[in-house]
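Practice set, problem 2.
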Amino acid sequence: MRAVDCVERVDLGEVPYEDAVRDMTDWVARRRAGEIPDRLALLSHPPVITYGSRTPPAELPAGLTVPLVPVDRGGQATYHGPGQLIGYLVLNLRERGPGDIVRWVENGLIAACADLGFETVRRDTPPGAQSLVGVWTPDGRKLVSIGMRIRGGVTSHGFALNITSDLVEFTRFVACGLPGVAMTSLAELAAEQGRPAPAEREVRDAVARALGAR
């Protein structure tokens, strides 16, 4: 996949999930029409659990502690909330040429984590197994969830990186379709290293650099 001259960085604060999806749908239409460049939007959401159409009902929480919202992206159920960095990518793949966009995102986020002082890896999914797409610690904890959609050659949705997320929320349902998966955060990893968690601004800047957004 070849480089493209510009990925526009858009920094937002906390945006309700439904509002963000509405804006993202508009960006996709404008990108397809050539009205805007490729775009990386960085933001957060109030507490919400999103899930795809293939998520079995048994994997969703029995008690509604936070809103449940069906989505049209890849991936299974996941939690969004304060302390998490959301990245929505609106990219024209026809201009970027052939390549694995999900692997490109995984590798970019691994580079961003390395820039922040954390070792992370990607994992290949065994045939017939539940997807292991995302960014993981070497000992098998999941730091970043990735769920994207491609329609008309343009991507939407993106990734969720836990900075200071409340990890207990992930235990209330089957996160990412992986029973027993251990989620982690940069705060937890930093504490294990005996240092403070990076500030959100540092994380935003590292992610934007790694994905070529400015």
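Problem 2, part (b): a different protein.
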Amino acid sequence: MNKDKEIEALMHGHLSIPVIILDKYHQVGLNEKEAMMLLHIYRFGQNNVPLPTPKELAEKMSMDENECAGCLRSMIKRNLLQIDEYEREAVRQESYSLYPFFRQALTAEVPSSEGEQIEEQHLFQNIEQEFSRPLSPMEWETINVWLDQDHYSPDMIQIALKEAVMNQKFSLRYMDRMLHEWKRKGIQTKEDAKAQTEQFKQKGGRRTQAAQSEKLPEYPNINWLDKE
């Protein structure tokens, strides 16, 4: 195949994309890399790859795998991308949906401030670093619920993460119980959370000391080997 035929074949290969992505991405707060990622996600979906991994996306872009993962988390957090669950042939599967982007593009919703986006992106990265593994899509959703619905601040979540790691509990469920308990007690600042944690540790320490101070019952020292 000569060059002219190769170019002709490339020109005939095309993908139909929604023009609104190109027209409106900047109005909803997406930069060029994020807009290109949406286009790649759309293309993967057309090729029956509903949930491309950060690695698969990185192979198509100028970003590495970690940057792609952070970009996905950021767009999900800002309600510009979501993960849908569906069932096919009795098997539960997941896929990316661009519906939130189209909704914002049509209603011109204002995205959250850049400072909040950076702070929350660091939160996701810190949890992955402390857990020594990438977060699953459902774990992303759990953290988004903490931020958007439960209104836990990133600072409070960071403290819960620190306590979980110190107790060797690498689980969002453990952190969720801690955050729920703080909310039930009206604890809303990181200072109050730290004070509550220290108080709990002190109580635990006193209980341990009390248990150690209890006199154990004495038993006769019998050497059974000497017994005739």
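Answer key, part (b): The radius of gyration is 26 Å. The first helix runs from residue 3 to 12.
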